[in-house]
Amino acid sequence: MMKLNYKDYCVTGISGRYITYDHINEFISSLPTSFKIEEIGKSVRGESIKSIVFGNGAKRVLMWSQMHGNESTTTKAVIDLLNYLNKDLIEVSEILNSCTIKIIPILNPDGARDYTRVNANKIDLNRDAQDLSQPESKVLKKVYEDFKPDFCFNLHDQRTIFNVGRTNKPATVSFLAPAFDVERNNSPSRKLSMQLIAAMNSMLQKEIPGQVGRYDDGFNANCVGDAFQMMKTPTILFEAGHFNNDYERDVTRAYIFKALVKSLETIKDNTITEYTVEQYLSIPENGKQFVDILVRNIDFETNGFSTSEFVPVQYKEVLEKDKIEFVPQIHDFEKEPEEIFAHKTLNCNDKNDFNWLHENGIMNLLS
What we know:
By secondary structure, this protein is of the alpha/beta class. The chain has two domains: 6-287, 3-Layer(aba) Sandwich (Aminopeptidase), CATH 3.40.630; 290-366, no CATH class. It contains twelve helices and 14 strands. It has helices at 21-30, 73-84, 90-98, 109-114, 135-147, 188-207, 224-230, 252-269, 277-281, 300-303, 351-359, 362-366, and strands at 36-42, 48-54, 59-65, 99-104, 151-157, 163-164, 173-176, 212-214, 235-240, 286-287, 290-296, 310-320, 323-330, 341-347. β7 (173-176), α6 and β8 (212-214) form a beta-alpha-beta unit. The chain is globular and about 65 Å long. The termini are far apart.
C-alpha cells in the first residue's frame, strides 16, 4: 500500500460528531458526473436517502454508514474516501477499473438529525434485517439485491468504553467478520471477511500498534451483517472507536479512511489469500474496561462514596443547538472489571485537577 498523506484527502469542512445530509450535500453535489448520485429511498420523515456509485470494475463493493444516526465517524471517512477516489492518481484509476463501489453515506437520516441510534420510529435498524419493518431497512435490502455486492462494509462507531484485549489501549478501530449461524462456524464468505480484515489490520498495526480490536461475534439473524453473511456475501463490520483526546473522532476517521483504502487495494490486487483466518483470530477481542474519567481521592465520607476508592465518570453525548455536548455522569458498569482504565485520571488532592473537576461540573456530581 502506498504511503498516504491523509491531509491531502481529508475534507476538513466536514468535521465533529454531528453529521447530517445538510453537512455533506454540498460536497456530494460537487463530485463529477462519473460519480452517479441518486435518491434510493426516503426515511420515515420523508428525507432523501442517497447513494453514490463509481468505478466500472467487476468486483462490487457496497458500503453504508450511519445506520445508527449517532455514529458519524465512518461517514466522515467515506467522504474522505470519495475525495481520494476523485483524484487523478494511477492507484485510484486501478481501483476504479477493478471495482464498482456503491456508498450510502447516511442510511438513517432521521436518526442522524436527532443524533439517536434509532430511526424516527424508535427502531434499531441493525435489528430489523428479518422483519424489514422500516423504510430504511427496505432501502438497504433492495440496494443489496439490485447491486449484488461481492463485499459489504457495515460502518459503525463504538463507545469509549472498549479496550483491546486486557490491555490499557483503547480500541481505536475494531472489526468483525459476522457469524452466519449460532455455532459461529466458518464458511467461504466468512473466511474472506476474516482475510480482508487481516489485511487491514496488517496496515493499521503500523499506524496504531495494539489499538485494533475484534468485536464480539455472537450470532443474531436480525443484525444486517449476520443476515448478509447468511446470504453468502462476505460482510465486514467496521467500528470507529476512541483515540486519545479525540472525542470529535477526527483522528479516528483517518484510520478508518486508510483501512478502507487498504481493503479496496487488497480486493483490486486479488491479494486477499495472502492473509489468513489465523491472523484475524489473533486480533484481541474487545474488553469493556475503560471509562472517560476516573476521579481519585475524593472526600468519600463527605460525598457519600465511603465504599469506593474512586468514582468512574462517563460522558453522555447530548445534542445542543446542532453541536454535541459531552455531559459527565457517574458510570455504572454492567459487570465491573478486575482492572479499570481511564482516558483521564484526576486526583482531588491535586489543585489543578480539583479545579478542572469543578470547572467541568464533575464535582457537582460527587457532592
